[in-house]
Amino acid sequence: RLGAGGSTGGSGGAGDAGGATDGRSRPPGRAMQLARAAEIVCLCAAPAALAGWLAERPIERRLGGPRQVAGGLMIGAVAMAAADRRPQRRTLEQAGPLDGLMIGLAQATALAPGVSRRGASLTAARLRGFTREDADELSWLAALPVILGAGVLKAGRLIAQRRAPRQGGTLLAGAGAAFASTLASGLLLERTGLGRAPLTPFAAYRMVIAAAVLRSVAEHGTSQDA
Known about the structure:
By secondary structure, the protein is mainly α. It contains 8 helices and no strands. The radius of gyration is 21 Å and the shape is globular.
């Protein structure tokens, strides 16, 4: 449905005439709709791809401690719960380039430990006023190119380090598993209707995990935490 929106009023006569002369003709504006959909998907993926290329390793080195992970979990939980209070007034057909860019920027924040790519994209879509169901669909559409791009980035780094022959099989298996699990979980959410569920329980779950991490740090400490 992405990119199916737009101004179709007033074009019925031309479309009917075209259909009468050539039954194979595409509906008016179909190419424009596809181009718009591709633009949105690219904007969803570009910020995460750029951030991953430039900042993945510094972020892993500097924000990898358990307190930072707990902080990411809590910030994500608060943002998710707040976003889900927004009115559900927009549908997938109304998505535009700015929506794609905002979701892409949200996905880029998932490089920080404790921030979920899925949660970040859902939060951004709900902040933009999409219904829960359509926010869920946008999140899945945005996920696939990012997952594929992350696999390409890892493969490129392994090749540059001349470690691809030894780790290529592991990388391929991991990328395949991530891609398959994304598709499987998407189908599960669609069939169970969880994609239309409120986000508050997921936010609460993240807070519980964050509290458990902080409690573990308080009780046992860690040499990795700054």
